[in-house]
Amino acid sequence: MNALTIADALATKYPTGTLTPPSGYGAIRVSTARLPNNIPTSPWVLVTLPKGSLILGTQQVKHLLEFHVNFHYAKATGDTARDITAMLSWLGVLLVATFADMDLGVAGIRKAYPTDWEMVVFTYGGDEYYGWDITVAVEYDEAQAMTT
User: Which residues of 14-41 are buried (b: 16+ CB within 10 A; e: fewer)?
Assistant: First the structure.
């Protein structure tokens, strides 16, 4: 299993040209599974893998990987009503991003789908960014030779 390959494939579901932004809002500028050296222009997405589990079968490993899709909308502007309206406008768009290609184009993936989400305030370099932390479950099967 190559978690970076899967994370990269998941990140391809969110960038400009792949995901249509809500009406009146700009497209996602960057979507990556690799922590950038500098904060990209908002909105942007960072995919991380905080945990996973596996079940051993007969010559097969079934993985359940829980990636976090961190959507960074924008720096907090002080206009909370406007920021929250934008955040709510983006949520539905972000949640269905994997539905058109649930195997992410990666051999062995059965499906990738959101399981939960939470509005968060990310802090980078002393600045606060409103965003969504979306957990995306990835079910992945891998043939594996095993001996006792």
Answer: bbeeebeeeeeeeebebbbbeeeeeebe
- Which fold, 3-143? Alpha-Beta Plaits (3.30.70)
**Residue-range domain boundaries for the chain:** 3-143
The string of pLDDT tens digits covering residues 35-89 is 888 888 889 999 998 799 998 888 889 999 999 999 999 887 788 888 889 999 9
> Taking Cα atoms as reference points, which of 62, 22, 68 lies closest to residue 43?
22
